[in-house]
Write a structure and sequence with these properties.
The chain is mostly helical and 221 residues long. 80% of the residues lie in helices and 0% in strands. The protein has one domain. It contains six helices and no strands.
Length: 221
């Protein structure tokens, strides 16, 4: 019951925050050079931060599974990987929409942040495909992929500080005015609440699936 209440509370808070987000974002001032289109930032960056966080959840859980073979860590890794894919889709859709108006192109293969973000997303797509179709032993192989995917996150994050790209540097959030910082943190809180609720629900679903498979195995015996 405790977890049910936690999930329900997180969902309610997320709904309230997302419902209020358009009004909070509308009250934020326009960025001096990009104008209205910059406001995609308030969804694009928080979704990217949640994607990175989920990659760490998957990677850490995968490392624990490789070391100890605990079912709980495997379930957490699966949930984390799938949510990297989900929030990665938001990142990869909002990014080009923003880029088309801000930079004049949908995609630039010379931009390291763009390319490495896509590669990171594809790594976790590979994880989910392994778990679904690779058969026996896929848990260990996928766990190794999860650790590899996590190791790529710092590279994706710091790439804009090392190479000249269209993306701004990692200090962009700290340079926001207070009027822009408030809607940013508002949207970040909304995405985090949604993420934690989905993570808990997905872990529970995987636990129920394991229980059901165990019951079927007993019936077959």
């Amino acid at each position: 019951m405790g977890q049910n209440r936690l999930i329900a509370g997180l969902v309610v808070v997320a709904i309230v925050l997302f419902a209020g987000a358009p009004f909070v974002i509308d009250a934020a001032p326009y960025e001096s050079t990009m104008g209205l289109i910059q406001k995609i930032f308030y969804f694009h960056v928080p979704s990217a931060m949640v994607m990175f966080a989920s990659a760490f959840v998957c990677g850490i859980a995968s490392a624990i599974y490789l070391a100890r073979r605990t079912p709980g860590s495997d379930r957490m890794a699966i949930a984390g990987a799938e949510l990297v894919v989900v929030f990665g889709i938001i990142v990869l859709v909002t990014g080009p929409l923003w880029a088309r108006k801000a930079w004049g192109v949908w995609w630039d293969w010379g931009d390291v942040r763009l390319v490495t973000s896509l590669v990171l997303w594809l790594i976790f797509v590979a994880y989910t495909l392994l778990r679904r179709f690779a058969g026996p032993g896929s848990d260990v192989l996928a766990a190794a992929v999860g650790v590899f995917g996590m190791a790529n996150v710092p590279f994706v994050y710091w790439s804009v500080n090392v190479w000249r790209t269209l993306h701004p540097k990692t200090t962009v959030v700290r340079t926001l005015s207070p009027e822009m910082r408030f809607p940013f943190y508002w949207c970040l809180a909304a995405f985090l609440c949604l993420y934690v609720a989905l993570l808990l629900l997905r872990v529970r679903l995987e636990r129920s699936k394991s229980t059901l498979e165990a019951v079927y195995a007993e019936l077959e015996d």
